[in-house]
């Protein structure tokens, strides 16, 4: 939907519409029907409703028109299944006003400050209303440049699902969080062994990856892929994310789901079976599986939150077994995932490379912020993973992730550092970094900032203005620590108090 409005004078305008179905592969048959342009091919049909006279030129619909002062020219494009009757026409101005009123009403329910509210609005906008699924846009440009391919990120990652639930709860949106919890439980229902790291917006599981050889991607990157082969990966950390989110939901007073605890207990049986195995990790590496420290920490989280479900909410389960497993995982990580010479945890057992996900160790309560091992890890990340003041995911020139080296900073990692700095008592540094991150926001939300290394080793910094769920959830979850609400951060490792920073 587009409304072209004249503010002053008279302006000549041109419109181009290139309609292609099936990822740009099919040119539709275009005709006029009752003064409306109709494009049809197979199961798809599109109606273009506008008072402007259009014409066809070289498989493109074009128009020339003039907009005068105080004049408004609408263009409404509506898709529908081609075998059904045309849907009811939409009044562009009325639809815009209704949408504006709905979002203003929704935003008034928030308990979050304005800067955090922008992130919550983005998360809400990224949800698929019929099911509650969320498909996060990503830094496709940076990833395409590094992978020499463009992947498909239109799916619902369990990790994003759980982080979104926590973010919505932090803003007071209990109803939305409950709908998200219900999507999560529907998506993961079934045999625990069949748990996937991502699903379709309605919970679809078959996400077969295909290459579209006729379609160029961002800046000509090829191949373009639809579907996502990473859906078949084993990522141990998602079990901990799910258990943590569902505990937070109960803590917030959310109405329990009848079968939710039974599903969680089944998941814990699977975690007990697989936690000693290597996995692909939080970053979905396409190289060999490894014993990622973050994955093991989140396995610890799964058992720890199970214990807390029993202790705090009176649920039934083999709590002594879960305590023993929690202690076993903890000892294993501290013995095999910590580099004593450098005083830091590492990305995986026996490796030297670091990983930004290590910053979450105090946040999830695995170790308290004043533990020397935590302080040493935060300092090591600052020393080895910072690029132009922001945090990289991991050193791509050292880690074998099946991709060529070189990528930009991933903003959620910098938010993790803000939280970690608070937890180790370095609040001045946290304020400074947080102010820099907030300065990256635009009228939508946090922009994507990427430094992409060219094949010759040179680098070029670009700023892209599009929302990511990762940055939005990371910012939203900082609220108790960062926004002067005089409430402690909610994690088992301790409490952090902080006054609101002054942000220009």
What would your notes on this structure say?
The protein is of the alpha+beta class. It has 15 helices and 20 strands. The protein has helices at residues 92-108, 114-125, 140-147, 158-170, 174-188, 237-251, 260-274, 293-313, 319-336, 360-363, 372-384, 411-423, 427-439, 469-477, 479-482, and strands at residues 2-5, 10-17, 29-33, 36-41, 44-49, 55-57, 60-68, 72-81, 127-128, 133-134, 156-157, 198-199, 210-212, 224-226, 338-339, 344-345, 386-387, 390-391, 448-453, 459-464. The strands form eight sheets. The protein has a five-stranded antiparallel beta sheet with strand order 1-8-5-4-3, with no helix packed on it. Mean pLDDT is 83; it is low at 446-473 and 479-504.
Concise structural overview:
The chain is of the alpha+beta class. Helix content is 38%, strand content 17%.
What's the helix and strand layout?
Blueprint: E1 2-5, E2 10-17, E3 29-33, E4 36-41, E5 44-49, E6 55-57, E7 60-68, E8 72-81, H1 92-108, H2 114-125, E9 127-128, E10 133-134, H3 140-147, E11 156-157, H4 158-170, H5 174-188, E12 198-199, E13 210-212, E14 224-226, H6 237-251, H7 260-274, H8 293-313, H9 319-336, E15 338-339, E16 344-345, H10 360-363, H11 372-384, E17 386-387, E18 390-391, H12 411-423, H13 427-439, E19 448-453, E20 459-464, H14 469-477, H15 479-482
Antiparallel strand pairs: 1-8, 2-7, 3-4, 4-5, 5-8, 6-7, 9-10, 11-12, 13-14, 15-16, 17-18, 19-20
Helix pairs in contact: 2-14, 4-5, 4-6, 4-14, 6-8, 7-8, 8-9, 12-13, 12-14
């Amino acid at each position: 939907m587009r409304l072209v409005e004249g503010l002053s004078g008279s302006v000549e305008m041109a419109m181009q519409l290139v309609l292609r179905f099936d990822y740009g592969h099919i040119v539709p048959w275009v005709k006029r029907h009752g003064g409306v342009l109709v494009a049809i091919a197979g199961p798809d049909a599109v109606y273009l409703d506008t008072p402007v006279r259009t014409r066809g030129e070289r498989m493109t619909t074009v128009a020339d028109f003039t907009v005068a002062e105080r004049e408004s020219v609408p263009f409404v494009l509506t898709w529908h299944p081609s075998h059904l009757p045309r849907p009811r026409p939409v009044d562009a101005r009325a639809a815009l006003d209704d949408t504006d009123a709905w979002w203003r009403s929704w935003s008034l329910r928030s308990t979050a400050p304005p800067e955090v509210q922008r992130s919550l609005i983005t998360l809400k906008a990224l949800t698929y209303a019929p099911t509650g699924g969320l498909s996060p846009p990503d830094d496709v440009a940076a990833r395409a440049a590094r992978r020499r391919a463009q992947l498909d990120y239109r799916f619902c990652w369990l990790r994003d699902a759980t982080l979104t639930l926590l973010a919505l709860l932090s803003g007071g949106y209990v109803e939305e969080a409950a709908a998200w919890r219900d999507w999560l439980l529907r998506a993961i229902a079934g045999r625990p062994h069949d748990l996937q790291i991502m699903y379709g917006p309605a919970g679809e599981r078959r996400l077969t990856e295909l290459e579209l050889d006729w379609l160029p991607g961002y800046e000509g990157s090829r191949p373009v892929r639809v579907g996502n082969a990473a859906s078949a990966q084993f990522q141990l950390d998602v079990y901990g994310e799910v258990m943590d989110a569902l505990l937070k939901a109960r803590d917030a007073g959310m109405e329990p789901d009848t079968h939710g605890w039974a599903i969680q207990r089944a998941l814990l049986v699977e975690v007990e079976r697989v936690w000693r195995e290597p996995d692909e990790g939080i970053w979905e590496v396409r190289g060999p599986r490894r014993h990622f420290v973050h994955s093991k920490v989140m396995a610890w989280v799964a058992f720890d939150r199970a214990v807390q479900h029993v202790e705090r909410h009176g649920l039934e389960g083999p709590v002594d077994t879960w305590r023993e497993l929690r202690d076993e995982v903890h000892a294993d990580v501290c013995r095999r995932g910590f580099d004593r010479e450098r005083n830091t945890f590492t990305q995986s057992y026996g490796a030297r490379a670091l990983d930004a996900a290590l910053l979450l160790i105090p946040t999830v309560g695995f170790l308290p912020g004043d533990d020397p091992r935590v302080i040493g890890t935060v300092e090591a990340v600052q020393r080895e993973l910072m690029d132009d003041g922001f945090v990289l995911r991991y050193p791509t020139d050292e880690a074998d992730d099946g991709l060529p080296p070189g990528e930009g900073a991933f903003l959620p990692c910098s938010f993790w550092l803000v939280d970690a700095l608070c937890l180790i008592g370095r609040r001045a540094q946290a304020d400074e970094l947080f102010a820099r991150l907030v300065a990256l926001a635009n009228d939508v939300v946090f922009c994507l900032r990427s430094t992409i290394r060219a094949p010759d080793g040179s680098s070029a910094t670009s700023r892209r203005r599009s929302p990511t769920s990762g940055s939005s959830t990371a910012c939203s979850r900082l609220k108790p620590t960062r926004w002067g609400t005089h409430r402690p951060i909610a994690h088992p490792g301790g409490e952090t108090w902080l006054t609101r920073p002054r942000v220009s």
